[in-house]
Amino acid sequence: MARPRFVPTAEQRRMVRSMAAYGIQQEEIAHCVGIRSTKTLRRHFREDLDRAGVKANAQVAQTLFQMATSGKNALATMFWLRARAGWRDNVVSFTRPADPPPFIVTPEKKAA
Questions:
Q1: In angstroms, rounded to a whole number, what is the distance separating the alpha carbons of residues 95 and 92?
Q2: Beta carbons within 10 angstroms of residue 88's beta carbon
Q3: Residue 41 near residue 16, CB atoms below 8 Å
Q4: C-alpha to C-alpha distance for 79 and 85, rounded to whole angstroms
Q5: Cα four-point dihedral sign 83, 81, 51, 59
Q6: Three-state SS across the chain?
Q7: Which bin fits 46, alpha (ψ -120 to 50), beta or left (φ > 0)?
Q8: Which is nearest to 22 in space by CA: 4, 14, 72, 43?
Q9: Are 8 and 49 in contact (CB under 8 A)?
Q10: Which pLDDT belongs to residue 5?
Q11: Would you say the pTM of this structure is higher than 0.70?
Q12: pLDDT of residue 92
């Protein structure tokens, strides 16, 4: 007897989009939805899987951008400039002064 054809529900689509946006592996998503294979998951939820991560990244980037441009969050501003504008911290290397010579020569004063 053949297995009944899988037809995704709106609730399953919402769950797949959320889990994919959070970065959960497809094997785990399939298990939670009640699908045995990732191949079946991809067949029925391809668009949801492809777009979820991009939408999540865009939402986080929007939040970071608002934090960085508000002037209230210096760390967000610095992170944005490093990640997007290529800014880097200057690394200053301090070296220890050279060791003094093993002996010291002092000139003698001539008597007048």
A1: 10
A2: 8
A3: yes
A4: 9
A5: positive
A6: CCCCCCCCCHHHHHHHHHHHHCCCCHHHHHHHHCCCCHHHHHHHHHHHHHHHHHHHHHHHHHHHHHHHHCCCCHHHHHHHHHHHCCCCCCCCCCCCCCCCCCCCCCCCCCCC
A7: alpha
A8: 14
A9: no
A10: 87
A11: no
A12: 67
Token pair for 96? 């220890």
Token pair belonging to 53: 């991560």
106, amino acid identity? T
| CB contact at 8 A, 38 and 30 | yes
Distance CA 35, CA 7 (A): 11
Above 90 in pLDDT, residue 109? no
How many Cβ atoms from other residues are within 10 Å of residue 68's Cβ?
A: 19
Amino acid at 64: L
User: 58 is written with which tokens?
Assistant: 């865009």
Name residue 41's amino acid: L
